[in-house]
Amino acid sequence: MVRYRVRGGNALRGTAFIQGAKNAVLPMIGAALLAARGRTVLRNVPIIEDVRRAVELAEAVGAYVELHESERTLVIDASRLTSAVLPAEIARRFRGSVLFTPALLHRLGEAIIEGIGGCNLGSRNLDFHYLGYKRLGALVDEGETVIHVKASGLTGATLYLDTPSHTGTENLIMAAALAKGTTVIENAALEPEVLDVIDMLTKMGARISGGGTGFITVEGVEELHAVEHTVMPDRLDAGVFAMAAAITGGELSLVGTGLDLGVVRYKLEQMGVEFARQGAVLHVRCEGPLRPINIITDTYPGFATDLQSPMMTVAALADGTSYIHERIFDGRFALAGELNKMGANVEVEGSRAIVRGRTPLIGTQVTAHDLRSGIALVLAGLAAEGETHIDSGYLIDRGHAHLAARMRALGADITREISER
Ligand SMILES: CC(=O)N[C@H]1[C@@H](OP(=O)(O)OP(=O)(O)OC[C@H]2O[C@@H](n3ccc(=O)[nH]c3=O)[C@H](O)[C@@H]2O)O[C@H](CO)[C@@H](O)[C@@H]1O
Ligand SMILES: C=C(OP(=O)(O)O)C(=O)O
């Protein structure tokens, strides 16, 4: 069992190195399996538990994978895939397992999905994925525990997503990339990670237009080839470090090429946090007290639901009442109870939370219920009096690489411990 121990009170200062994006690298590993020849090289790979699970899953279906941790590089040879089964014991541990389906369908004619994991955030349906595969000509058999998707060749079609699902868009693009003819995906996701995956697929030989418009057209091609691609920076990791500077009264230079925090930056600016772009570096600092804020989560370019939890911690440390409206997931407020154990005053009413700040936070034993509530508790610990112990640290490790070491280098008193329990 992994546990984080944080002793609060230190301002974070220095240069924070932002990792590659979890939500870009996972679909890219799925995309690499579409190449029937050659070796794919992925650079700027975040060394997180989800990537380790994705490597195990790629190996389980027959790919040869090298994860060079210190070089943050993955080399994937998918020329021989041998199994269409996504085994429960790996697939249930991360959401990204769903992104292996298109490659198995194209390469082996079927995908047998024994389970899909990911953060526990309420209902997380996959109906858009399955409806899309069906419209492309696949047979989908949704059993109690196992889902069997079968196709002897897919054919382009017009697809529509009820809401712009992130992995749904990526999966349907990958399924369409090697289908016969043209596919149009309406109401597609606009997230930068989706565009990065489109860039990689385009280098591989896919013919995709309309990325970032909500209407994506894919002209199917005969084959895709292995390429080298550098994973974009993780805007969620960057957002967390910006917030860490804000709540500790610190000053950080965020290094990660082309970093754009979008609406998160504007919201933090409204709270009193100062940002300055210095070429490729984003400088962030906060001197005065934080002002309260209103947040409404939405798909890109709206406020990312994955930063809603860390922002709840920031709001708890602001002077006044903040309002948060969570519109993507129906179970993403488990953090409130944990923050309240530390002395916060957060009231949840359905999809809305009222955060009454600022109350002093006191370190105690708390539990991460998912990746982002985990990192939000680390932030709370950095600003709390005394020591905070955060259990289920594995969930934090799913999405943040070398977190304790990176924060310690900036002055934080944080350790990652392995306990018996
Ligand atoms: C690995 C990865 O990239 N994970 C991200 C991805 O998850 P993921 O791709 O799973 O999230 P989606 O965008 O698909 O889901 C958003 C909402 O749509 C609903 N929905 C989705 C698909 C579907 O077929 N039917 C359906 O009803 C879900 O229940 C949820 O309420 O986007 C989320 C929303 O930005 C992020 O929090 C996750 O970090
Ligand atoms: C919800 C998240 O991830 P996943 O979709 O991988 O569970 C997240 O990154 O906050």
From TrEMBL:
HAMAP family: MurA. Phosphoenolpyruvate binds at K22, N23. It holds the Pfam family EPSP_synthase. Keywords: Cell cycle, Cell division, Cell shape, Cell wall biogenesis/degradation, Cytoplasm, Peptidoglycan synthesis, Pyruvate, Transferase. Transmembrane segments: none annotated. This is UDP-N-acetylglucosamine 1-carboxyvinyltransferase. It comes from Nonomuraea angiospora. PANTHER family: UDP-N-ACETYLGLUCOSAMINE 1-CARBOXYVINYLTRANSFERASE (PTHR43783:SF1). The active site is at C119. The modification 2-(S-cysteinyl)pyruvic acid O-phosphothioketal is found at C119. Coiled coil: none annotated. Its EC number is 2.5.1.7. UDP-N-acetyl-alpha-D-glucosamine binds at R95, D306, I328. Its main location: cytoplasm. It catalyses: phosphoenolpyruvate + UDP-N-acetyl-alpha-D-glucosamine = UDP-N-acetyl-3-O-(1-carboxyvinyl)-alpha-D-glucosamine + phosphate. Cell wall formation. Adds enolpyruvyl to UDP-N-acetylglucosamine.
